[in-house]
Design a protein that fits this description.
The chain has 2 helices and 10 strands; from the N terminus they run βαβββαββββββ. The protein is mainly beta and 224 residues long. The strands form 2 sheets. Strands 1, 2, 3, 4, 7, 8, 9 and 10 form an 8-stranded antiparallel sheet that branches. Strands 5-6 form a two-stranded antiparallel ribbon.
């Protein structure tokens, strides 16, 4: 076989669309809530957009970064100056992005608040016009309680995939995180020369079957 330098079709360039579970984390053992099924000939982005299980967070900034951090222990022996053996003793997976749409729904996810902290269409008295009312969305900034369980949510991102597809077909890569928890500081700002966005880092936790999630490369054939 002749030597080839590489395959440019395997290079991925482009942003991913991100969706977050409306209720809780995805449980791969009992499917509650269940991940939306793939639909033949339909991009998974479109399937998720029409699903009541997840919500599109909208625009993001600086893309999506998935980081794997293994932790290895060492075995040293007298006869070697370096370690004789490494063994895996820990694992940590993080997912980072920035929500460019500064909605209260996105802030709720970024600060790992409970769904009940956000109340929509609250009737409020209007102090300017006598006898009229306003409707507002209210996010309570609650400190929580001692012993309260942290809020975990499922995440799905759909971006460009690798490979060579037929004309009109689409290649997509799907990232699924079963359990995600926002663990880093989140800044809410209002600045004259800078857009307000929420930089968020999610710690991914393994489900009962030991899986953090999955990555799927999918070919969506062109419509006939």
């Amino acid at each position: 076989m002749a030597y080839t330098r590489g395959d440019s079709k395997q290079i991925i360039v482009g942003a991913a669309a991100m969706f977050v579970s409306n209720a809780a984390e995805f449980d791969p053992t009992n499917a509650d809530p269940a991940l939306p099924d793939f639909v033949a000939g339909t991009s998974y982005r479109d399937t998720l957009q029409d699903s009541a299980i997840v919500r599109n967070v909208g625009y993001t900034m600086n893309g999506l970064e998935l980081q794997f951090q293994p932790d290895f222990g060492e075995v040293q022996v007298d006869q070697l100056l370096d370690v004789a053996k490494l063994y895996k003793q820990g694992m940590q997976v993080n997912l980072a992005t920035a929500f460019a749409e500064a909605t209260l729904e996105n802030l709720l996810v970024a600060i790992a608040a409970a769904s009940g902290d956000l109340t929509e269409n609250v009737t409020m008295d209007n102090p300017i016009e006598t006898g009229s009312t306003n409707y507002a969305d209210v996010l309570e900034l609650s400190s929580g309680n001692i012993g309260e369980c942290p809020v975990e949510r499922g995440l799905i991102a759909v971006g460009p995939g690798t490979g060579d597809c037929e004309a009109g077909s689409t290649l997509e890569r799907i990232y699924v995180a079963y359990r995600s928890l926002s663990i880093e500081n989140v800044t809410v700002s209002a600045k004259r020369d800078e857009a307000s966005m929420f930089e968020v880092s999610f710690r991914l936790l393994p489900a009962n079957n030991g899986s953090y999630g999955k990555i799927v490369d999918r070919l969506v054939p062109a419509s006939s």
